Amino acid sequence: MNNPCPSCRQPKGARKYLCLTCWDTLPALARRHLNRRDQRAMSRLQELYRQIAEGVPLREIEVSP
Ligand SMILES: [Zn+2]
After folding, report:
1. Ligand 1 centre distance from Cα of residue 51 (Å)
2. In angstroms, how far is the first alpha carbon of the chain from the final one?
3. Residue 17 resides in a domain
4. pTM reported for the whole predicted model
C-alpha cells in the first residue's frame, strides 16, 4: 500500500494527513491548527508525525498554532 495512515497503517486519502478514524481521534484544537494551510503547515505536519512516531496517543497530540 503506497499511502497508509502513519498511525494505524490503514489506507487513507492521498491528500490526507491521517485516515478519518485517526483524524477524528485528534483533539479538536490540534485539528483546527492542522487544517490551516499557511507557511507553517508543513512544520505542523512534522510535529504531528513526530509525535505519532514517538508513540504519543492521538488524543494527547498537540500542534503549534
Ligand atoms: Zn489511521
Report:
1. 14
2. 32
3. yes
4. 0.90
Q: Looking at the domain assignment, is residue 65 inside a domain?
A: no
Domain count along the chain: 1
Q: Which three cell numbers stand for residue 5?
A: 495512515
**Distance from the CA of 20 to the center of ligand 1, in angstroms?**
7
Q: Where are the alpha helices (DSSP H) in 1-65?
A: 20-25, 28-35, 41-54
pLDDT per residue as tens digits for the range 34-61? 999 999 999 999 999 999 999 999 999 9
Residue 58, CA distances (Å) to 23, 26, 38 in order? 8, 5, 23
Q: Give domain status of residue 45, yes or no.
A: yes
- In the reported structure, the alpha carbon of residue 49 is separated from the centroid of ligand 1 by a whole-number distance in angstroms of 12
Q: Which domain holds residue 18?
A: 1-54
